[in-house]
Amino acid sequence: MAASRPIMTSLNGDNSWLLSFPHPPAEHKESGKAYYHIVFEPWLHGPSSTLSSWLIHLSLPGIPSVLTPSDLEALIQDIELAAGGHKTNTGSNDHSAIDAILLGFHYNDHVHEPTLRLLDKRIPVIATSDAAAVVKPWCHFDTVTTFTNLASGFDPASWRSAPSGCLPSWLNLLRFPGHHELNYCLLLVWSHLEQGKERHEAILQSPHGLREIPDQLQSFFDAEPAVEKLALLHGLKESYAIGHQNTFGAKAGLALHRAAGDPKYWVTSHNSPLLYSGALMRMLYVHDTPRTIDWAMKQEASALSSEQKVKGLIKPNVIDVENGGRLVLV
Fold it and tell me: Measuring CA to CA, which residue among 154, 160, 200 is closest to residue 177?
């Protein structure tokens, strides 16, 4: 495994990831670590309940591949050794090999307290303001820094100046809100040198989809010099409550994929059939409707002119990374 490209590892088969970005050569040499490891929204230990399990209760459909901090540290060590890095030193008196925890949303299945409390308190947390407001009262983590939605009127060409918590200077966070707090797009931009030239590549994440593409996000996509769109993390399923759609899956994901210029990878995320229970969930009739990329492309084609259909459309490279699976973004 070469230490030149990012690696995504699924931690629970749904929306929890280990995102490993190659260190610049100087930092690699200084730290002995080949990668900067971000744990993204870990939900690994038990169900997710709000107020009470009898009111709002969510469960994963399967057992996460990573259950304990030790499992996570062993996973990172495996990646480091395979990439030619040093063996990580972790234990009761050593710092974790995890470099940061990233929380992009504040609902309990994204900020899972039972899991987060298991992690080393010295790991810095980077969170939205709402997610930080959930985490800080626990008084568990030593460092919690925040990032926010981009302000209206923000110049898309100046994205490198956007606050990105305590991430290194070669990683930037951008968050674009949609019509509802559930619906947003988070971008993690990786800047690195390749053959002496700086290159910027983005991973997009929209767990509940966007009803429409925000103007500010489209301006970012259209800005010059362009940021390459490497991967889109997006589900295919749709979700509903009291008959209203709140998660926009395959069809909306395809629109976002097109607007972003067809990223190289579409990685399904937050797409597993979660188990909903509790009085409020039953009263609201919360449920999922599975969709496929072929269904979305048929929907897309039906709205196109004959000339557009003749030109043809690229079918996205949709990849389902299994629970515990690993994808190198080449």
Answer: 154
| Span 2-15, average pLDDT | 90
For residues 1 and 15, give the distance between their C-alpha atoms in angstroms, rounded to a whole number.
Answer: 24
Residue type, 61: P
Q: What are the tokens at 248?
A: 């926009």
DSSP letter for each residue of 91-121 = BTTB--S--EEEE---STTTS-HHHHTTS-T
pLDDT of residue 308: 64
59 neighbors 43 (Cβ within 8 angstroms)? no
φ, ψ of residue 233 in degrees (nearest 5): -100, 115
Residue 165 has a pLDDT of: 87
Residue 89 has phi, psi (to 5 degrees) of -105, 105
Q: Which residues of 7-33 are buried (b: 16+ CB within 10 A; e: fewer)?
A: bbbbbbbbbbbbbbbbbbeeebeeeeb
**Tens-place pLDDT, residues 172-196:** 999 999 999 999 999 999 999 999 9
Which amino acid is located at 172 in the chain? N
Helix (H, G, I), strand (E, B) or coil at 130: helix
- Report the interhelical angle of 250-259 vs 293-302 (nearest 10°): 70
Cα pseudo-dihedral 55, 133, 131, 134, rounded to 10 = -40
103 Cβ neighbours under 8 A, 6+ residues apart: 41, 110, 111, 125, 126, 127, 128, 131, 132, 135
pLDDT digits (tens, 9 = 90+) for 42-69: 999 999 998 888 999 999 999 999 999 9
Give the pair of three-digit tokens for residue 79: 């990646």
The pLDDT tens digits for 294-326 are: 999 999 999 887 666 656 689 999 999 999 999
Inter-axis angle of helices 250-259 and 215-222, nearest 10: 40
Does an H or E element contain 8, and which?
Answer: strand 7-10
Q: In sequence order, which residues have a C-beta less than 8 Å from that of residue 268 and are 6 or more positions away? A: 233, 234, 235, 236, 318, 319, 320, 321
